[in-house]
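Table S7 (text form). Paired inputs.
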Amino acid sequence: MKNVTDSFVSLGYWPFAGSFGFNTDILATNPINLTVVLGVLIFFGKGVLSDLLDNRKQRIFNTIRNSEELCGGAIEQLEKARIRLRKVEMEANEFRVNGYSEIEREKLNLINSTYKTLEQLENYKNETIHFEQQSAINEVRQQVFQQALEGALGTLNSCLNNELHLRTISANIGMFGTMKEIID
C-alpha cells in the first residue's frame, strides 16, 4: 500500500497542510479523476446500460416481428382483394354480355309483339269493315224489300178485290216470316 501512496506523492507537488491551493499539474490530476469516474461508471452503470441496451434490442425485435406480421397480413389481404377483384370483373363481364343479349332478346320480343298486335288490329279492322258492309247490305236489302213489298201491296190493292187481296197478304206475310227467320 505504501507503494501506491508513494506513487501518488511522487507524481506531483503536494502542498503542506495548512495551505490551500490548486494543483495545476494537469498530468497528475486528470488521469486519476478520469480513472475514478470511469471505474465508478463501469462498475455501477454496467448493469443499467446492459438493461437499457437489452430493452432497446427487445423493442426493436418486437417492432420487426410486428411489422413482419402486419406485412404478411397486408399481403394476404391484397391477394384476397385481387381474387375478389378478378371475380367481380368476371361477373361484370358476364352481366354485360348477358345484358346485351337480354336487350337484344327484349328488342326482338318487342318487335314481334308489335307485329302481332298490328296483325290483330288489322284483322279486327277487316272484321269490323266486313261486319259493317254486311250490316249495310242487309239494311239496303231490307229497305229494297220493304219498298218492293210496299209497291207490290200498292199495286195489289189497286188491282185486287178483297178476297184475292187477303190471300195475297197472307202469302206475303208467310213469306216475310220465313225470310226473317232465315236472316236471323
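Next pair, protein 2 of 2.
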Amino acid sequence: MATKEGMEVLDLTKLGIQQLTQIKQQLDQELSVFNDSLTTLKMAQGKFRDSNESLEKITPSTEGKSIMVPLTGSMYIPGRIADGKTVIIDIGTGYYIQKDVDGAKDYFKRKVTFVTEQMEKISTMGLEKNKLREAVMDVMEMHAQAQLSAQKQQASKS
C-alpha cells in the first residue's frame, strides 16, 4: 500500500471479490447515512427559512392582533401578539431565548448559512464516496469478466 498525503492508497485490483463486496457494502451504508443527513439538514434549513419569513410579518403595528400559535406541526391555538418588538425563539433542546425581531432574523439567517455549509460539506464527502463506490464496482466487474473469460477458455479446452 502506498501513501498519499497522509492517506493510504489501496490498489483495488489486488483485492478479491469478497473484500471488494465488503468495501462496496460499507460505502453503500455510508452513502445512506449521508443521504439521511442531507434530508434532515434540508428539513432544518426549510424550518429556519420559514421562521425567518414569519418574522417579516411581525412589526410593532401587529401588536394585539390575533394569530394562530403552533403547538406542534399540526396543532394550533389562537393567540394574540403581545409585543411586536420582541419574539421568543426556540434554539433547540427545549431552550428558548427572547430577542428583538432584527436579532431573531439575524439568528435564523446565520442558522440557514450554517446548515447550508454543512450540507455542502456532506455533499462533497458523498460525491467522493460515490466515486470510490463506482471504482470498486468497476473492479468487481473486471474480476467477473476475467472469471467468465477463464471459464470460457476452460470450456473450449474440454
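Residues 20-130 form a domain with the Helix Hairpins fold (CATH 1.10.287.370).
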